[in-house]
User: What shape does this take?
Amino acid sequence: MNTNNILCSKGSSILRSSYTNKGTAFSPEERQKFGLRGLLPPRQETIQDQAERALSQFHSFQTTLEQYVFLNCLRDRNETLFFYLLVNNLELMMPIVYTPTVGEACQKFGNEFRFAQGMYFSTQDRGQIRDILDNWPNPEVDIIVISDGSRILGLGDLGTNGMGIPVGKLQLYVAGAGFNPARTLPVIIDAGVNTKKYLEDKFYLGEKHSRVPDQEYYAIIEEFMVAVYNKWPKVLVQFEDISNDHCFNLLDIYRNRFLCFNDDIQGTGSVILSGFINAVRAVQIPLRDHRLVFFGAGSAGIGVADCIMSLFLEQGLTEEEARKRFWFVDSKGLITTNRGDELAEHKKAYARTDYTTQLKTLLEVVRDVKPTALIGLSGIGRSFTQDIIEEVSSHVEKPIIFSLSNPTSNAECTAEQAYTWSKGRCIFASGSPFAPVELNGVRLVPGQGNNMYIFPGLGLGAVVCHATKVTDSMIIAASKALASCVDDAEVITNKIYPGLSGIRDISIRIAVAVIEKAFEEGVATIARPESIEQLVRQYVYYPNYESLQLPQQH
Ligand code: NAD
Assistant: This one.
């Protein structure tokens, strides 16, 4: 038997390619034309029929990990159907294709591996990355999400197992903003792994050595970045889940050289800034009078503070005045310049210079500062205790309490705790979703500071106008555009984020604002169109079979 003949038989390659396969949706004419007769059950279905079946199969699985595997296998068979299903069931499936299920999928990546998605570059590939990029089957790439697997969600160093993150994130770019999946590329840089479990795991698929020294690490990333922009000069690279010892440096090295951003730092900053803008509208205290206590000074905490800083600067505060509105608490207490330890570089800008006595606990800090806003990005579950929330609530009518750590078990407090302990007065947002809370007959709806609100639209704007870089102002413009999706009547009821079901329209609004700003700053390289919104809408992909590029008739 000649295997090559089987693989190349007329039509079978169309059915086997996830890009061209329509399965039972091929019409009788197409079945005749492409040699598919006899290869499919007779009845022709619509994509809606297929999606209905796939949804019922999705619901038949017992665990979310099984649902994750099912969805990814579906994508491998029929990309259009997968994205149709995802776009039309985004709120149901987002927790499967991304957090929290993707976390478990990454931890078990080696065990659950079925087929490869995206591209991998290891230190073995040094000197050849540009050539290897040519192996990617799709000619054009608009967006790359890249991770080194060193800090996957809150799960630590997962090495190559982290591939689920770039894959899942790009699925959200497609679903949330309408990127064309064929023009997206997930990437893992394998620079080793420091987690012993994976070094000893026979199913682990990355290189089995500990992480390479910094010099080698930065060299492979540099080679990758140069190669990528050589092959696809207009591509946007989004850094994701890279540990603190590298993520800030990488952003500093590349933010002005290439079109790139870091979602953990800038995307988080932008989405929380947006929530903060609306919280300020809701509490009706002038911005310059706010005092913010941050619990946690990692990539997310600093990223959020940097974004809120720019809002203060915009309002006319000097940098020095603006910095004084922030107090950061980490595992050693209030961050000050004189507390006696060597501060990590990224914490230095926010270290207080005006404390002679060292405040060691969050409670001491909130007693001293009397903050208008308490923002948790520490990863320490239930660290906003009753006495802390009561203390904050005793100084302001409507305290802003953001309990942003993920997953739910790591949230600094639950929505119910925040509402109960503040007697229903707080403006609350979390990282992971919480259900509405009934308190004294009032239904309180928590906000979710989900990065998903920002990165698809920010990326869409940057790509559509072929920006040369992602500037801070473009990120602030994204925050404001998101904030403007909640009107005054809603803000008065303490609603600070819009519903996620309207994500595609939200993303378009954000993209338009980002492009306006890119033109203003001179970083957009396309000719200014008559209607920016129309240009954005033209780019947006919607999964349907009509848009499939099938082979020409022989
Ligand atoms: P990180 O590891 O970079 O930072 C954690 C910070 O918390 C560090 O400054 C650390 O010193 C501090 N910390 C640790 N233990 C502490 C303790 N006992 N007391 C006080 N501070 C302590 O992590 P990150 O990337 O900044 O993420 C932090 C959290 O934010 C995670 O749980 C993540 O899920 C969450 N996050 C949420 C969103 C969102 O809601 N949109 C986005 C990104 C990250």
In short: The chain has four domains: 22-91, 109-258, 270-449, 453-539. The radius of gyration is 24 Å. The pocket of nicotinamide-adenine-dinucleotide is lined by residues 154, 244, 264, 268, 271, 295-301, 329-331, 377-380, 404-406, 410, 431, 449-451 (CB under 6 Å). DSSP finds 25 helices and 14 strands in the chain.
